[in-house]
Amino acid sequence: MDITPLHSSSTLPLLLLLFSVSLFPNWVSSLGINYGQIANNLPTPDAVVPLVKSIGATRIKLYDADPRVLKAFANTGVEFIVGLGNEYLGKMRDPKQAQDWVKTNVQCHLPATKITCIAVGNEVLTLNDSILSSNLLPAMENVHTALVNLNLDKQVVITTAHNLGILETSYPPSAGAFRKDLTQRLTCILDFHSKTGSPFLINAYPYFAYKSNPKQVSIDFVLFESDSGITDAVSGLHYGNMFHAQIDAVHSAMEKLGYKKVCLQISETGWPSKGDSDEAGATVDNAKKYNANLLKLIAQKKGTPMRPNLDLNIYVFALFNENMKPGPSSERNFGLFKPDGTPAYNLGFNVTVSVGSNTTTSTSGGSGGLSAPGNSSDGYLSITSDTERILLHQTLSFWSMLVSTILAAFLL
């Protein structure tokens, strides 16, 4: 089945993005970016291409397989992770439907568009939906089998993204362990990654740790600006920032299940530039600090204290602010750019924007990850699922399924 977003014309002008110089300094290389489209004021994909090139992004993660985007980026060399939404996991239990989906949404764009990965579902295991959870691995396996049948499995891998709510223990990092109720499913998923050579994806957001407990969590520690950091008393490893500590907590959890060699990568991380009055830390200044320091970390190409040589393959969330996302204000303000192509805050950008033709409306796209800390003695790293953001994902899945049902009835 061809799963594509709804679009409608708008009287707003199309933004032709013209750039006088590269937006990011030369030291930023191999940048990954999440391209969400839950907005009615974004530029067309054709207009986004020069923006992506100008920031030096070589990798894009989509939350669907929007053919407009994939066609726009044909022959650019940009690598894509395409998404297969949660609402379609049940259908993917049918091998024929899985193969049809791959043919329609992936194979037809190759090799012009460099699709290297399919993310089957997003943050499924913490949605407390037993049917979705039971469908996840069979869907991953069937989509992988479809790739094998089409001789695409050597160039496209299968994965799924998790939030840090899958952890039961996360502090200190060496004590990291998965939730007991999710251990069996995660073991099977990790076994799939081990057999197919695909990465285990994590959405890691130190912002939510600070938002949950700003009086106890050090803002410098979450913004990569701590002078002292913390030392794991068990491993003896020193952590100068929460981002690395969160990642190594997952590494520890994977090791405890015997999957030390499965590659862990970061599919989402970012910081909002605006929030509601009760959203501590959601400011332009903090977003600028977090993402500027994150870009420096990416440029250094260093791993974590536990895995110093690991390429984390980080994808920043997100390319644009998305004005139609539900939830608190922060959800609509994670973008590095405003919809008109101007920077949301100064990261050393130098942009000339010219206005000319139409924008489009899209109801598909991505949402930020779920990673919220619970209370702990130090306030740093005890991470549990965030009820508010889980409800947001459930709402998005509901509306997506409703739109699909209406479309199916209309086409009949």
Descriptive account of the structure:
GO terms for molecular function: glucan endo-1,3-beta-D-glucosidase activity. It comes from Forsythia ovata. This is glucan endo-1,3-beta-D-glucosidase. The chain is of the alpha/beta class. It has a single domain, classed as Glycosidases (TIM Barrel, Alpha-Beta Barrel), CATH 3.20.20.80. Helices cover 31% and strands 17% of the residues. The strands form six sheets. It has an eight-stranded parallel beta sheet with strand order 13-10-7-6-5-4-2-14. It has a two-stranded antiparallel ribbon with strand order 1-15. A two-stranded antiparallel ribbon has the order 3-16. The N terminus and C terminus are likely disordered.
Characteristic terms for this protein:
single chain, 412 residues, alpha/beta, TIM Barrel, eight-stranded parallel sheet, two-stranded antiparallel ribbon, 10 helices, 18 strands, globular, disordered N terminus, disordered C terminus, Glyco_hydro_17
Strand and helix map with partners:
Blueprint: E1 15-18, E2 31-34, E3 39-42, H1 45-54, E4 57-61, H2 67-72, E5 79-84, H3 95-105, E6 114-122, H4 130-149, E7 157-163, E8 167-169, E9 177-178, H5 183-196, E10 200-203, H6 206-212, H7 219-222, E11 230-231, E12 238-239, H8 242-256, E13 264-268, H9 284-300, E14 315-316, E15 352-355, E16 360-362, E17 372-373, E18 383-384, H10 387-411
Helix pairs in contact: 3-4, 4-5
Roughly how many Å is the radius of gyration? 20 Å
The name of the CATH architecture is Alpha-Beta Barrel
Percentage of residues assigned to helices: 25-40%
Shape: globular
Distance between the termini: 14 Å
Residue fraction in strands: 15-25%
Following the backbone from N to C, one meets helices and strands in this order, namely EEEHEHEHEHEEEHEHHEEHEHEEEEEH
Strands of the largest sheet, in order across it? 13-10-7-6-5-4-2-14
CATH superfamily: Glycosidases
Number of strands: 18
Main beta sheet, described?
Answer: 8 strands, parallel
Mean pLDDT: 83
Poorly predicted regions are 1-28, 351-412
State the domain count. Answer: 1
Looking at the structure, the CATH topology is TIM Barrel
By secondary-structure content and strand pairing, the structural class works out as: alpha/beta
What's the CATH class, please? Alpha Beta
The count of helical stretches stands at 10
GO molecular function: glucan endo-1,3-beta-D-glucosidase activity
Signal peptide: 1-30
Keywords: Glycosidase, Hydrolase, Signal
EC number: 3.2.1.39
